[in-house]
Structure formats: C-alpha cells, structure tokens
C-alpha cells in the first residue's frame, strides 16, 4: 500500500501544504513552516509549486 503526500484537511493555514507534509512525516507543522518563512524568496516559489503538485485530501461528509 502506497501512502502519498496530500494536503491537510484539518491544518490549513494557507492551502494545507505544510500541514500535509507534517502529517506525512509525523512531525509538527511548525517545523515544516519554519524553512518556508526563513528562506522567503525560494520558500515562496517552492510553496507555490507544491500547492499545485500535492493532491487535495478526500472530502468526507
């Protein structure tokens, strides 16, 4: 069974990218967000790319 990275359904500060990465690795979302904040120009470009590449979470009722 293959587990894929997907955007977080519960931890969505902007688009859920950092929350989804944190859920995948089982770490705090703050640890994932910190590099995006510290390296603003490169982090912003990478975040935009990841927003378009990472799948949306499945919707539940």
Descriptive terms for the model:
61 residues, mainly alpha, 0% strand
Main sheet characteristics: none
- The helix-strand sequence is HHH
Could you tell me the radius of gyration in angstroms?
12 Å
Strand content is under 5%
Structural class computed from helices and strand pairing: mainly alpha
Assembly status: single chain
End-to-end Cα distance, whole Å, is 24 Å
Q: What are the low-pLDDT stretches, counting only 5+ consecutive residues below 50? A: none
Estimate percent helicity.
40-55%
What's the rounded overall pLDDT mean? Answer: 87
Counting DSSP H or I runs of 4 or more residues, the number of helices is: 3
Backbone shape: globular
* Number of E-state strands: 0
What does this structure look like?
The chain is mostly helical and 61 residues long. It has a domain at 17-53. Helices cover 54% and strands 0% of the residues. The chain has 3 helices and no strands. The chain has helices at residues 17-25, 29-38, 40-53. The longest helix is centred in the C-terminal third of the chain and has 14 residues, at 40-53. The radius of gyration is 12 Å and the shape is globular.
